[in-house]
Design goal:
314 residues; alpha/beta; Rossmann fold; 2 domains; six-stranded mixed beta sheet; four-stranded parallel beta sheet; 10 strands
Length: 314
């Protein structure tokens, strides 16, 4: 296991949190919950159908609370009572009401299924206008990123961000990197152009986003627009932009849209043998995190640990 991932586990163990787990019929979730509990990474709450129906009074309270939250959007009490029997809604409402500190879902559910209740119920954190997501990418090659760790964003939520949204995704990712990884962020806003080598509307959006972030955080090491090879390879960086402050040593990659981000992380995971943890939410008031349906038990345990660390910070 990567040393940085080990440190995330140590942080999680320092103050174990109550992490609700959906998709409990999946044996990978059951195994991961057992490991997390035995290693004292978190106190897992398995959202089985039995758990939901046995806790009748809690279910009634949560359905009433859900109704109050969503009635102006047209949700009836009977509909709220039906929704709360679904593990993801039940778990999200547990997080909302403080009965759980975070939620992990997605082993057998879609990203939409996981994040829809979170966006409806938990909303954005103070001073945040959007919710975005990132992946923690773990490489066997320690020379990649920050000792073999990178953050990819946004690969799960925002489909076609404009420059303001892309700037917010960038600042959220920088904050997530600092809190989880604890190192100096080095950011690349990716494009098919490096330092005006190409042009087009998507290039303009990336350049504008980079300008916004630079104006807000003048000391941040950031470059955009920049091509992927120049972002992560010092020699290519020098060849394409000798004045680069990033120098081909990015540890945070910001993708211009969901298409490119989602495709990239899956290719890197499968072709480079990297581990992909996430999508992890950021900008949300309480941590709710997703899993790839192709995740392993180790992936789930690591995501539980990341969720626990996020909930320590809030």
């Amino acid at each position: 296991m990567n040393e940085i991932i080990k440190q995330i586990f140590i942080k999680a163990k320092s103050n174990p949190k109550r992490i609700a787990l959906a998709d409990t019929h999946d044996p990978r979730i059951q195994s991961a919950a057992k490991i997390a509990k035995e290693q004292k990474i978190a106190n897992p709450i398995l959202l089985t159908n039995e758990f939901i129906h046995e806790n009748n009074e809690i279910r009634k309270t949560l359905s009433q609370h859900l109704f109050e939250l969503r009635k102006e959007k047209g949700l009836s009490l009977s509909d709220a009572q039906k929704l709360i029997t679904q593990p993801i809604y039940f778990g999200t409402m547990m997080v909302k009401t403080g009965l759980a500190d975070g939620l992990v879902s997605g082993a057998a559910s879609t990203t939409h299924d996981t994040f829809k209740p979170a966006l409806q119920i938990l909303k954005t954190a103070p001073n945040q206008n959007i919710v975005s997501s990132f992946f923690v990418m773990e490489f066997t090659n320690q020379r990649i990123g920050q000792e073999g760790i990178m953050i990819f964003a946004d690969c799960g939520l925002n489909i076609s961000p404009n420059s303001d949204t892309l700037a917010q995704i960038t600042t959220q990712s920088v904050d997530s990197f600092k809190r989880l990884i604890g190192s100096i962020p080095k950011v690349a806003l990716l494009s098919y152009s490096t330092n005006n080598s190409g042009s087009g509307p998507s290039v303009d959006i990336v350049k504008q986003a980079a300008s916004i972030v630079k104006s807000q955080h003048p000391d941040l090491i950031i470059e955009g627009e920049i091509q992927a090879d120049a972002a992560i390879t010092p020699l290519v960086s020098f060849q394409k932009n000798p004045q680069s402050t990033l120098g081909g040593k990015a540890n945070i990659l910001i993708f211009p849209d969901l298409n490119s981000g989602n495709i990239a992380y899956k290719l890197v995971e499968r072709l480079a043998g990297a581990k992909a943890y996430g999508p992890i939410s950021q900008g949300i008031s309480r941590p709710v995190n997703d899993l790839s349906r192709g995740c392993s038990v180790d992936d789930i345990v690591a995501t539980i640990a990341i969720t626990a660390v996020q909930s320590q910070i809030i």
